[in-house]
Structures are given as structure tokens and as C-alpha cells.
Amino acid sequence: FKSGGELTRLEKGKTKGILLRLLRYVFAHPVMFFCAILFTLLSNQLALLGPEYSGIAVDAIAAEGGVDFPTVYENVIKMIFCYLLSSVLAYFLSVIMVTLGQKIVYTMRKEVFEKLNTLNPHASVILELYRSGFSSISELVSSYNILTKMAEPFA
To answer: The whole model's pTM is what?
Structure first.
């Protein structure tokens, strides 16, 4: 790292290569990946609609001639619906991402184990050394920020 936490050109290249290899594992589960992207977009869009409805309700409260209760009620219901649905989608997104992370780590462990068994019949000891790396990959994939982190090198 350079001072200030910036990545050098070489480190960016390595990070981009690592993320491209990780994408190979992610794209092995296209339905889950598509659902994760869809749930992310929908959840965020619904969360952003809440303040819009809140503003309309506040305007109806401060309207000339008194409070427009039907408009207030309608927009409060819409706001509650948006926030509830956004929360449900965020929950299912977290379940999908944890499951995807577990599947990716399982595949990676299986590939490493098979490779090490072809190199050395006593490779189970070496495999134990790799387990800590796999758990960090699982944490990365299951976090909400994986989609953001995967896009950073391309920005």
C-alpha cells in the first residue's frame, strides 16, 4: 500500500486477478448470484422510496386548509410496506449470500484437497493450513459488501 491506504498499480492488478478467479466460483451458481443482485436492487430501491412517501405525508399534514388525513394514511401505509418488504428482501439476501459463500468454500476446499492428494498422499496436514484462508473467503462472500468489493477494481 502507498501512504494513505491507496493500492499501487501492481496491487490493483493482483486484486483484480483474484476477484476474477473468485467470480468463476460465483458464476458457477448463476441463479443464486442473479437473485442476490435482484434482491439487493429491490431492497435498496424500496428503502429509498420510504422517505419519498414520508415527504408526501408531511406535505399533506402541512397543507393549507388543514390535514389531509386520507393522503397521510395512504402514504404512511406505502412507507411501512416499503420498509417491511425491504427488510424481508435484505433477510433473504443475507441467507442467499451465506449459502453462496458456503458453496464456494466447499468447492474450493474440494479442489484443493484433490490437488494436494495428487501431489502428496499425506496432504491432509497441509490442507489444515489452508482452512483459515477459506474461512476468510466465506466471510467475504457472505458479507453484504461483496458486490461492491467485486466492482471496485473495475471502477
So the answer is: 0.67
